[in-house]
């Protein structure tokens, strides 16, 4: 039942087959710009998202470093704390003058 055909025996191909192949080629060629733009947009979206994730991560690291520096500075301040000294006022108020008492006799 199997017949052997050589390449020289095939004279033509069915038009429906050639049309289907031509249409699929035209469709693939026509969709190429849209496909490439879609790929470009997805790549841009992914790289933008990654950039924002990196920015957030860097900000978190900066905040951690700031907190560590603040803690260390507070520790240094607390270690060098000296007891408070009471400052004496520079201007001393003179005592109020005494009022003459009525019991003392006046000498003239």
Question: Which characteristics define this entry?
Answer:
rod-shaped; single chain; 108 residues; mainly alpha
Characterize the structure shown.
The structure is a single chain. With 108 residues, the protein is an all-alpha fold. It is 60% helix and 0% strand. It is built from one helix and no strands. It has one helix at residues 15-79. It is rod-shaped and about 160 Å long. The termini are far apart.
Shape: rod-shaped
Strand content: under 5%
Mean pLDDT comes to 80
Structural class: mainly alpha
Layout of SSEs?
Layout: H1 15-79
Nutshell version of this structure?
The protein has 108 residues and is mostly helical.
